[in-house]
Design brief:
This protein is an alpha+beta fold. 24% of the residues lie in helices and 31% in strands. The chain binds adenosine-5'-triphosphate.
């Protein structure tokens, strides 16, 4: 890691401003120069693989970890060195951390009671939040008498009842099965909209982040590689890592020579709105669902074309996944909705095409993070 960069001031209207924050553990750098502003009322997801530094970032916002460099502001106030209980922030952990000997109502009202709120008022307020999370009528149960999803709702109600400025959520659905997770995702989004509290949500699950977040950041080895609205980051990822982490992506090398940029088979590469690369090392990314497959003897509609041989076809119900061998020895993946009238089979020769607007360039090495504005420019 190089010398610390100067720390810029907090964005005045941001709920959370993380400015030039790094965190080392001994020689290891867990988080590098994270710069992040969360708007008030925003649902923001911090996404990345295990060990990328997302939990450490969240823990620094919560006050459980000190940054090595940089500063953290909550609504413009520098909280970098404040302990957790002096920050207007609550955290929902994956483990829920409910008190086993207390009832649902007592767990939910616990924070209010500690702040000196009277018993009747605390119960009334806790009751409102239990209703909000769909647990009206569960007041007298203890955590051991609840399912994982219900315990998660109690943890959420307990965190929200204090009405913090910011709620931090650290893989809160990690212990839930796939179906309950899906239901909880919808619920959580609804609850967040209703209460209007800023959510910073840490997850390694890209579908979860994409379905809930207003914006997301993708971290890799302690660095944010891309940040923006889920659709923008999916459709125009800034780096190869982001393209491949957020769903599936075909990544093709580009030939750059006097004739311009070309696909590995020599066909021209056409991408809308961006200049063709003039240096080697660039790649082009194209999502499997954007590839059009036509029989080799029929005209394809996309401006980018190559031929390929179908090697494998997997029927997935709503769609079919095809694997294709390319003339340059690479493999492509294509998804087709099962509405197409033509059937493809292993061994078929096909024309693979895609429209200029649907591919994106990927730089040789990740640079500083891109913003939506820069990508749109
Ligand atoms: P996961 O999804 O597995 O929780 P993460 O993206 O949240 O991963 P962090 O927990 O932030 O990752 O960890 C980032 C890096 O910092 C990892 O390499 C981890 O081993 C290291 N790390 C985290 N906490 C400590 C610590 N207290 N001491 C030493 N190293 C740590």
């Amino acid at each position: 890691m190089t010398e610390p960069r100067p720390v810029s001031p907090a964005a005045s209207d941001a709920a959370i401003s993380i400015k030039g924050v790094s965190r080392r553990f001994g020689d290891a750098v867990a988080v590098q120069y994270v710069d992040l502003d969360l708007a008030r009322g925003e649902f923001f997801a911090l996404l990345g693989p295990s060990g990328c530094g997302k939990t450490t970032t969240l823990r620094m916002v919560g006050g459980f970890e000190l940054p090595s460099t940089g500063a953290i502001y909550l609504e413009g106030k520098d909280v970098t060195t404040l302990p957790p209980y002096k920050r207007d922030v609550n955290t929902v952990f994956q483990s829920y951390a409910l008190f086993p000997h207390l009832t649902v109502m007592e767990n939910t009202a616990f924070g209010l009671r500690r702040k000196g709120v009277g018993k009747a008022e605390a119960a009334a307020r806790a009751g409102e939040y239990l209703e909000l999370v769909g647990l009206a009528g569960f007041d007298k149960r203890r955590p051991s008498q609840l399912s994982g999803g219900q315990q998660q709702r109690v943890a959420l109600a307990r965190a929200l009842v204090n009405h913090p400025k910011v709620l931090l959520l650290d893989e809160p659905m990690g212990a839930l099965d796939a179906k309950i997770r899906k239901t909880m995702q919808h619920e959580l989004k609804r609850i967040q909209r209703e209460v209007g509290i800023t959510f910073l949500y840490v997850t390694h699950d890209q579908a979860e982040a994409m379905s809930m977040a207003d914006r997301l950041a993708v971290m890799n080895s302690g660095l944010i590689e891309d940040m923006g609205a889920p659709q923008r980051v999916y459709d125009r990822p800034a780096t190869q890592f982001v393209a491949e982490f957020l769903g599936t992506c075909n990544v093709l090398p580009i030939i750059v020579d006097g004739a311009g940029a070309r696909l590995p088979d020599g066909n021209p590469l056409v991408i809308d709105g961006v200049a063709a690369p003039t240096e080697p090392g660039w790649k082009v990314g194209i999502r499997p669902e954007k590839l059009e497959l036509t029989p080799a003897n029929r005209a394809a509609s996309g401006a980018n074309r190559t031929t390929a041989t179908v090697t494998e076809v997997t029927y997935l119900g709503a769609s079919t996944e095809a694997r294709l061998a390319t003339p340059w020895g690479g493999e492509l993946q294509a998804y087709r909705q099962n509405t197409a009238e033509t059937v493809i089979r292993p061994g078929d020769q096909v024309e693979v095409s895609w429209h200029a607007a649907q591919a994106f360039l990927l730089p040789p090495t990740p640079t500083a993070i891109a913003t939506d504005e820069e990508v749109a420019a």
